[in-house]
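ASSEMBLY PREDICTION REQUEST
Request ID: AP-0331
Submitted by: J.K., bench scientist
Number of chains: two
Total residues: 519
Priority: normal
Notes: Please return the full assembly, not individual chains.
Input sequences:
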Amino acid sequence: MTMFSSRNWREYPQRYRLEASKFKKSGKTYFPPRAVDPETGDTEFEIVKLPDTGEVLTYTVIRVAPAQWGDQSPYALAIVKLTDGTRLMGQMTDCDVEEVKIGMEVRIEFRRVQSEGHHGVLSYGYKFVPKWY
Amino acid sequence: MRDVCVVGVGMSQWGEVWRKSLRQLFVDAALKAINNSGVDHLDSLYVGCMSSGLFVGQEHIGALMADYLGMQGLPALRVESACAGGGMAVRQAFIEVASGISDIVMAAGVEKMTDCSGDDATFALATAADQEYEVFHGATFPGLYAMMAHAHMHKYGTTREMLSAVSVKNHKNGAKNPVAQYPFEIKPEQVAKSVMIADPLHILDCSPITDGAAAVIVTTQEVAKKLAKPYIKVLGSGAGTDAMALAQRNDITTIKAATLAAERALKMASKTINDVQFAEVHDCFTIAEIVLLESMGLYEPGKAGPATLAGETALDGKFPVNSSGGLKSKGHPVGATGVAQIVEVYKQLTGRAENGRQISGSLKIGMAQNMGGSGASSVVHIMEVA
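STATUS: Completed
Returned structure:
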């Protein structure tokens, strides 16, 4: 599906700045932000920035990728738990896919995530790199 | 609430069915179900279908299917809940009959998945995941279940041999099913040596892309008795949902939507999980069958893998799972799968399973569990011999 520029732009606060919602009652942070806290039903929150380090909760290596990702295959995808407990999914980079392990410490970096051919929208966002890198 | 029964079932050919279109697959299954039940009319129709728009460019299929079934005028609605659309269609039919709004309702499911390229099909399937926070980053469906598998292996020590055992067992059952897409047996070493799709899942851990349809006639016990055809009772129907994105779930080694759906269906049926004697379970990937058996309380967390390896879920085991061959061997036309699960439970409870696939012993209670996406939706039905 063609990436539409407004769709890409709308996610900038999350993909560029890691903005999440922190609810008053529970103190819980959600990424991406939500209007309603699933635990308490609370609708009062403030926008906070996520921490940029955490550890790999689980991962996979995509070896058969959709056409759009063919030139990046194989690539590792991980769910990372950040230091504040928030979890998010993204690609691992700057390491061999075989090195990725559960419990690995990572840091979030700003990278190009998708590009559509030679003329389409370039989509940037977060990726995970090994903390020691 | 009125008692609800399933009185007739039908399935089209399943596989890469190049000679049949979306509507033809549906009509094949629907006519078989009508003839099998002996009903002379329908009061309404529900059609489960995940993504006819992306697979063949056709939406609005409730009306289209009623039209080509020769029933213009019939109230008809498409039901979508990703791969759980079929089971949800059965649930809608159940609700409509139980409520007294209609007496005879068809619940069907159909998917035509091979009229597009593999990439297009992969894209269509991935729309059941979170487009902005999973698919955007390159997630595929095997990739999502692979992440569950790694987490489950890490937490409980689940092994490659246990995953392979699910696939081997389901192929053994599917080899006896005349509609199965891949009706042949496989060996554990073939699973382990097959192409890696997303670590740790190989291609033989994954259900295939399939064309196919299934249909059942849902009606009251009064009508079912008058028809004088074999029927089963649907004692309970339950559905549940969970966070869409895996990262948003507190524990990805369990599928909460299935836990909720099973609890609700059992409560309605006034049964416990220990009353259930066999099950059709949504094995879209080998790890899914293991996680689901645990999520629904059939096994303690971490115990379903060893139990599968020990043969407990085999056709002759103490709790047979996926006697039909499951999604792995029978095929997985996504919107039709949940209805086909009901077809198998009907066949088992009425003693009509073909080719030595009949579970031995006196069967009374069976269960069907259908699931959407990576487990954000699930639906469970509890059925009893009439």
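REVIEWER COMMENTS: Residues 4-117+208-385 of chain B form a domain with the Peroxisomal Thiolase; Chain A, domain 1 fold (CATH 3.40.47.10).
SIGN-OFF: pending second reviewer
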